[in-house]
Amino acid sequence: MQHRIVVLGAGYAGASAAGRLAKRLRREDVCVTLVNAEPDFVERVRMHQLATGQDLTHRSLAEMFAGTGVDVRVARVTAVDADRKAVTVTTADGPDELSYDTLVYALGSHWDDQGVPGAAEHAHEIAGRAGALRLREHLAALDAGRPVKVVGGGLTGLEAVTEIAEARPDLEVALVARAGLGDWLSDKGRRHLKAVLDRLGVTVYEHTAVTAVEAGRVVTADGTVLPSAATVWTTGFTVHPIARATALEVTDTGRIVVDATMRSVSHPDVYAVGDAAWAMGPGDKPLRMSCASGVPSAWQAADAIAARLTGGKDKDVPLRYFNQCISLGRREGLIQFVTADDRAVRHALTGRLAALYKELVCKGAAWGVAHPTLGLPTRRRPILQQAPTDAPADAAV
């Protein structure tokens, strides 16, 4: 009887996990089902490009996983019963239930309006394709000279504001940041960031909190009203609410608590990867929501699952950071090198070379997902006749 592995979500983390499992395990021994609400893989790190009118490569999940042994199911996950080992989904034909022996939870995250009045009604988000396409249509309809406000000074906000300013130099584009501009970067990184924003004509409001979003304007904490024909909200992400409704142990933000192998600390047959996982990295700091964390966590989980099923040993390779890659339009970039626990060091790569570096990183990540069974030596091993399901996560099995 085949061991049933169900992977929920086909973003960078989920798709990477499914592909790596297909490389590690024999098809006759396991059934890998990949569930995703959309039929295509979405390059989430390029949503700011999509919003400014650029066309992205179309990647069908069915075509990507054809011949790999991974069964792609287009369905929306509506519930997970971790005690019964069952997932409820809604397909085009109606509700259905999938039973599993091992679950990989990779439903990811979406934008977070943080409860700011009017943000959900009046702001645009670029955390997914639907939101990016709505913003694309809205920006295209704006006349020259109209004001655009990007709220949020993190990586997403920086990439969005520079992309919009470069694509539409006729608009009055501004960044509204709660903290200082790039205050987590090195001195070199901050200088370059400021120079690029100045060159693109972006107005920056530092140490400014937005307390309300209204039609045609945003309101700041000190009562200042800033006109805005298009408000782009990039202040952070929140995870899918399904995990919080399960018996899984989660944090107060709804992320699934996992060990070093990405295995749930409460349900040993469940692994969580990507934004959905609360995993500790170097310095006893939680891994941040990012592609830089998501793909390595997927590899970690897939290798741990394969080891557990085949009688191998968990590698438990520590996850760490190397750099933060920031696109600043199509011609500029910033690669901030960091410590293992994601703190900026002096060194940074800037300019055109940094833009090329970031583009290679994006293409490499998409290529890895689009070619799920390439790039690794094929070492499909038979699983144990009775694969353990409740052994301690750190046990050698």
UniProtKB/TrEMBL annotation:
UniProt keyword Membrane present: no
Ranges of residues in domain FAD/NAD(P)-binding: 4-302
Coiled coil regions, renumbered to chain: none
InterPro entries: FAD/NAD-bd_sf, FAD/NAD-binding_dom, NADH-Q_oxidoreductase
UniProtKB keywords: FAD, Flavoprotein, Oxidoreductase
SUPFAM superfamilies in alphabetical order: FAD/NAD(P)-binding domain
Highest taxon, organism lineage: Bacteria
Cofactor (UniProt): FAD
Family label: Belongs to the NADH dehydrogenase family.
Protein name: FAD-dependent oxidoreductase
Lineage: Bacteria, Bacillati, Actinomycetota, Actinomycetes, Kitasatosporales
